[in-house]
Amino acid sequence: MNFFKKYFKGDPHIWAIILGLSVFSLLAVYSSSGSLAYRFKEGNTAIYIMRHSVFLAIGLVTTFILHIFPYKYYARLSQWMMILVAPLLFFTLFFGVEGNNAPRWLSIFGMSFQTSDLAKMALIMYLAQRLASKQNEIHDFKKTIAPMLVIIGLVCVLILPANFSTAAMLFAVCLMMLFVGRVSFKHMASLCAIALVMMTLLVGSFYGLQKIGVEHRVVQRGTTIVNRIDRFFDKSEKDDLLGYNFQANQARIAVGTGGFIPSGPGTSIQRNFLPHSYSDFIFAIIIEEYSIFGGLMVIVLYLSLLYRSILIVRKCEKTFPAFLVMGLSLSIIFQAFVNMAVSVGLMPVTGQPLPLISMGGTSILFTGAALGIILSVSREVRRQDELKARKIVGEKLAEEKTVE
């Protein structure tokens, strides 16, 4: 216990949540990656769990390292990150490596990473810094609001063709940050209207380019997004187990099989049929093997993370750390609940991994980084609370001596 208190600062509840999610991750990935191992590694199931364990360890080390640095350094870092984001997103959109039939990855010196994850973190950090520094001019549209709206729109538009769900979630997080940052409803409504018009024009251009014979992968991806949403609301497609909604239907079978009594790790049947059971649909495998109670336990862990983050925000004496924790925690929670909603059939298939549970190096790395920054703020908040407590105790002792 003394070792933990000495080296692991910040909210101990968040550290416990990270540990709980990591345990679920190891168990679920080991079980769900079995079919992948038989297809590509001649049945050697240890390969994928070992690789995932390495990525998970790197993510946890990233959390530990980032939680040591004072949060003020992240305000400066966000500006440098934003300079890199737009060129990286643009390059990825047209020259990136495909993942899930979309150009989402960028390969540098043989190492691949998903640029949208970097952009998501960079934009949240940058927006937190700008909102904090411009509170005295927050109602000045030309000087304060317009530059922020341009940055938000640019990043979301560059992410949208390859990863619509990430762009939508990031846009929603930014809206909530603007709302808490005292931006007027009129300006937020303008942003939403502009976003709706731009998305309509973008989708229309995709269909138009496809009609005239343009077969670029960005155009194909744009029409795929719209078709996927249409098929989600088409009941005839839902009833066709081998149709376009094959993944969603197989996930529903896994969830329905779970029941109320856990069958235990490694007992999943649907992992043999469900594509991406180790990433996009890992929550369905968790329910199948650990029943509805296992799924509820995962939900409780994410809700607990949100609750602890809210407590940190309330205790922050400055605006930047409050905006930072709020934005990063909401991005994790939104992603988690979108993944779980897809697994149980409440949303169209999006391709969002379950944070800190799904197999995937980039997702784990940036989730670990976000948690590290949240813990960095928590560390400072706890230090301030300790100083206040010591001050109060000192004042009481001084009063007692005076009375004597």
Largest sheet: 3 strands, antiparallel
Number of helices: 15
Give a count of the beta strands, DSSP E runs of length 2 or more. Answer: 3
Oligomer: single chain
Unreliable stretches covering 5 or more consecutive residues: none
* Structural class by sheet pairing and helices: mainly alpha
Structural commentary:
- This protein has 404 residues and is mainly α.
- It has one domain (2-403).
- It is 74% helix and 3% strand.
- The protein contains 15 helices and three strands.
- The chain has helices spanning 2-7, 12-32, 34-40, 46-68, 72-95, 115-133, 141-159, 164-180, 185-211, 217-232, 235-239, 246-258, 282-315, 319-343, 361-403, and strands spanning 97-98, 103-108, 111-114.
- It has a three-stranded antiparallel β-sheet with strand order 1-2-3.
- A hairpin with a 4-residue loop joins β1 (97-98) and β2.
- It is globular and about 80 Å long.
- The two termini are 39 Å apart.
- 43% of the residues are buried.
- The mean pLDDT is 83.
State the main characteristics.
404 residues; three-stranded antiparallel beta sheet; 15 helices; 3 strands; globular
How would you sum up this structure in a few lines?
With 404 residues, this protein is mainly alpha-helical.
Task: Write the SSE topology.
Blueprint: H1 2-7, H2 12-32, H3 34-40, H4 46-68, H5 72-95, E1 97-98, E2 103-108, E3 111-114, H6 115-133, H7 141-159, H8 164-180, H9 185-211, H10 217-232, H11 235-239, H12 246-258, H13 282-315, H14 319-343, H15 361-403
Helix pairs in contact: 2-4, 2-13, 4-15, 5-6, 5-7, 6-7, 6-8, 6-14, 7-8, 7-9, 8-14, 9-10, 12-13, 13-14, 14-15
